[in-house]
Amino acid sequence: MARTRAKPEKSVIGWREWLSLPELGISRIKAKIDTGARSSCLHAFRIRLFTRDGEDYVSFQVHPLQRSTRETIVAECRVLECRQIRSSSGHVSMRPVIVTEVEWNGVRWPIELTLANRDAMGFRMLLGREAVRSRFVVDPGKSYLGGRPNRTKMS
Question: Which residues touch 64 (CB under 8 Å, ≥6 apart)?
Fold first, then answer.
């Protein structure tokens, strides 16, 4: 008789969560967990591509808190590639893709992240299905299962 191994249970994540991007210096950002989007995307502006020592890099700025320009994070990363991305409205654009770690509920893992101006969108970040695949089950009826940031630290 063959022995079968039980697959480890996946953690449940809500449809919106507070995440951090520690390598970018972003301690908290509210994200929509979007299984309808293949890629993850971060709201960025003043996106500037450049070359350093023969490698492609991008510098950019982020306002991590929705409806607030009070906090600005300046970041710089190596570019994995530039990729054509089709938005939910059908518009196609070329976006730089970076690899960085995301953290939720004490767990860190690397993700590919596209950079685009999401100022008019409801969330400053989308965590797409490639980033949650094989890690989490998304409960569309739950929010903030990893907790909420302390309000006093958000001012």
Answer: 26, 27, 28, 29, 71, 73, 124
Sign for the pseudo-dihedral over CA of 40, 49, 76, 61: negative
Task: Choose among 61, 52, 39, 42: nearest CA to 115.
Answer: 42
Query: By C-alpha distance, which of 134, 108, 107, 47 is closest to 82?
Result: 47
Q: How many CB atoms lie within 10 A of CB 143?
A: 16
Residues written for the chain = 155
In this prediction the pTM is 0.86
Give the pLDDT means over successive 10-residue stretches in the chain (155 positions): 69 96 96 93 95 97 88 96 84 92 96 88 91 94 91 48
